[in-house]
Amino acid sequence: VRLGEYAPRTTAIKLAASKATTEAFLSIALVATLFFVGGSAQSPLPEFVNKIGHEVVEYYNAISSAVMNGSVLSSESSLGVSAAAILWTGWITCAYTIFAQSFGQGRVNPTDSNLIYTTQPLFSSLFAYFLLGEVLGVYGYIG
């Protein structure tokens, strides 16, 4: 999609909504596929796909069990924390950034926005170093 062409002609919220809807649809399709793979006895897919599929099925079973027992928000259950993390990830780190990106791209030409986006790995590693004390390994520097 040529965002440089469409961003000036529409609102940032419409662009963000269409992108978020597409991502949500594809994410749901992926989880459903992994659930199907995890529930089947044999699959010709790679081992890591089967393993992730089994983990999705186990997580679904844990959620179902907690809902049936009424222990979703109990201190023994980590499902409340998981739900909060999922909501934070969806609303703040995805939805807001999609909106902010669409808002910015409507006001900056495509060449400048591309240059800004190419610096993202540099700034991510600088913030991780200064704020979190993370250090890159050999593969991090190569990347």
Essential attributes:
7 helices, 143 residues, extended, 0% strand, single chain, mainly alpha
Discrete helix count: 7
How confident is the prediction overall: mean pLDDT?
81
SSE-based structural type: mainly alpha
Low-confidence segments, given as residue ranges, are none
Radius of gyration: 20 Å
Tell me the fraction of residues in β-strands, as a range.
under 5%
What is the N-to-C order of secondary-structure elements (H for helix, E for strand)? Answer: HHHHHHH
Report the span from N to C terminus: 27 Å
Count of individual beta strands: 0
The major beta sheet can be summarized as: none
Q: What portion of residues is helical?
A: over 70%
Shape: extended
Structure characterization notes:
With 143 residues, the protein is mainly alpha-helical. It has helices at 3-6, 12-39, 47-69, 79-105, 110-118, 120-132, 138-142. The radius of gyration is 20 Å and the shape is extended. The mean pLDDT is 81.
